[in-house]
UniProtKB/TrEMBL annotation:
Protein name: NADH dehydrogenase
PANTHER family named in the record: 64 KDA MITOCHONDRIAL NADH DEHYDROGENASE (EUROFUNG), APOPTOSIS-INDUCING FACTOR 1
Cofactor names: FAD
Similarity comment: family membership: Belongs to the NADH dehydrogenase family.
Entry keyword annotation includes Flavoprotein: yes
Species of origin: Mycolicibacter sinensis (strain JDM601)
């Protein structure tokens, strides 16, 4: 029996496991020829990109409902070690799992620097647990003491995509909690000179107009030097009173990438070839946020479900093909879009790596909602054929507007 281990159950890990199961069927391999096991710290597939939203009831899917019908095993365990000399991984419990092929899809985490007070008073939307902790904190604001204005003020640190989406949702969430006696205030802070610096010059006016219309204040070109129970201190010396601080500044690949004998980029990602094999480690594939994969002749993948999902499907297909000396597929994605949720201001939809705006407002918002509630979800009816069909290594067309 050949053993394939998939580390991670996010967008890349889930689709790598299902893609591998599909390829086994396609090759008509005999029962028991390959054992696929997913190792992940939680028994869920989380729709992580929705963590900025208020209602997360539909954002966790039990892995057993997705993997069991496809004949894929799952162990709830945190992987702590990868030994490429013995082709094995170890978990926090001390268990060891040998592999013939490994797919590393352990994702990424928000970067939390050593800022005084961040660990005690900062929240995040990086994980489902983090988002739920923020929601619990927000619900408690209505019971705060004699300073309702401070209770209704939130600071969001980091004006990238996650920070922008979080900031645009917070005024409505705060208003629903603190009531009509005060007007919620959200302050968005970033060390760059502009908010949404990664979105380019075409989208910036749309983003800035949306923030202004919602009433979100910005502080750019500054950093946070300390966080307290009642606010944050900036590098400019300004103190911003706030009862809520949400940290959305920066992402880094899983620390497991450091255990492979390869170089890493500034995000901690490892290089992979066109078939998603880790360069220099032929028994290991990587997909999603841990991998720096070529998307076209000029651009590498970004940490997003837009790239993580197809990377997972191709890695799953290729890991089985590689085991049985079958042809592998080369991954290339010829288009790139960004759909940024701007809360009550709608959304902005851009195309191309230079992020040219093609739609904004309600039309773009409808597209964002379709992506968040349908496009990125696996089949949830427990049907094996549907799950394996969804794991086919093909590239979706870019999202339709409206």
């Amino acid at each position: 029996m050949k053993r394939v281990i998939v580390v991670g159950s996010g967008f890349a890990g889930l689709w790598a496991a299902l893609g591998a199961a599909r390829r086994i069927d396609e090759l008509a391999l005999p029962a028991g020829a390959v054992e696929i096991t997913v190792l992940s710290a939680n028994p869920f597939h989380d729709i992580r990109v929705r963590n900025y939203e208020a209602d997360l009831r539909d954002c966790r899917i039990a892995l057993e409902d997705l993997l069991e019908p496809a004949g894929v095993g799952h162990v709830t365990a945190e992987v702590t070690g990868i030994d490429t000399a013995t082709d094995s991984v170890t978990t926090a419990t001390g268990a060891t799992y040998p592999y013939d092929r490994l797919v590393l899809a352990s994702g990424s985490q928000v970067v939390k620097p050593d800022v005084p007070g961040l660990a005690q008073f900062g929240f995040d939307v990086d994980t489902y647990g983090g988002a739920m902790a923020l929601a619990k904190h927000l619900r408690g604001l209505g019971r705060r003491g004699p300073n309702p204005a401070q209770a209704a003020t939130a600071v969001v640190v980091g004006a990238g995509l996650t920070g922008l989406e979080t900031a645009c949702e917070l005024p409505g969430r705060l208003a629903a909690i603190v009531g009509a006696e005060v007007t919620p205030q959200v302050v968005l802070i970033d060390h760059n000179d502009h908010v949404g610096s990664d979105m380019g010059s075409s989208a910036r006016p749309v983003i800035e107009a949306a923030l202004s219309g919602i009433g979100i204040q910005t502080r750019t070109g500054v950093t946070v030097t300390a966080i307290g129970e009642h606010g944050v201190t900036l590098s400019s010396g300004e103190v911003v009173p706030a009862a809520t601080v949400v940290w959305c500044a920066g992402m880094r690949a899983s620390a497991l990438t450091a255990q492979l004998p390869v170089s890493r980029d500034r995000f901690g990602r490892i290089p992979v070839d066109d078939q998603l094999r880790v360069v220099g480690v032929p028994s290991v594939f990587a997909a999603g946020d841990v991998a720096a994969a070529q998307m076209d002749d000029e651009h590498l993948s970004v940490m997003s479900c837009q790239h993580g999902r197809p990377m997972g499907r191709y890695a799953g297909y290729n890991v089985i093909s590689d085991l049985f000396d079958e042809p592998m597929l080369k991954l290339r994605i010829p288009w790139y879009v960004t759909v940024l949720d701007l809360g009550p201001a709608g959304a902005v939809y851009t195309e191309g790596w230079d992020r040219q705006v093609v739609a904004c407002g309600a039309e773009a918002k409808a597209t964002k909602q379709t992506i968040n509630t349908r496009r990125i979800y696996p089949p949830r009816n427990g049907d094996r054929a549907a799950l394996l069909a969804a794991a086919t290594p093909w590239l979706q067309d870019r999202p339709e507007l409206g």
